[in-house]
Amino acid sequence: MGFLDSVKKLVGQNANKVETAIDKVGDVVDSKTGEKYKGVVDKVQDAAKKAVDTTKPEGQLQGEQVPPTQQSGQAPPASPPPTP
């Protein structure tokens, strides 16, 4: 596994934190520039979030959280069969 593969895996496992950081950085840039470039900053944020989405493990879509009993990238636990 190469360096970029390791980075992609790490980003995918921490996608929510990375997306929060993207939002915070965009807010700082908007604040420092007096929102002069707000449209450009928003476009860059959207592009960065789309890139993060491509690194998420299968089954973890945007806005979807992994249950605390399941680690990112693991298959969900089997549910018991329904009772008749």
Question: Could you please describe the fold and organization of this structure?
Answer:
With 84 residues, the chain is mainly α. It has a domain at 3-53. The chain is built from 3 helices and no strands. It has helices spanning 3-13, 15-32, 38-53.
Number of DSSP helices? Answer: 3
How much of the residues is beta strand, in percent? under 5%
Low-confidence stretches: none
Helical residues, percent: 40-55%
- Global morphology: elongated
- The mean pLDDT is 82
Name the structural class: mainly alpha
Q: What's the gyration radius in Å?
A: 17 Å
Q: Please outline the major beta sheet.
A: none
Number of strands: 0
Order of helices and strands: HHH
Distance between the amino and carboxyl termini: 48 Å
What is this structure's SSE topology?
Layout lengths: L2 H11 L1 H18 L5 H16 L31
Helix pairs in contact: 2-3
Features:
single chain, about 80 residues, mainly alpha, about 0% strand
Please summarize what this structure is.
The chain is mostly helical and 84 residues long. The protein has helices at 3-13, 15-32, 38-53. The mean pLDDT is 82.
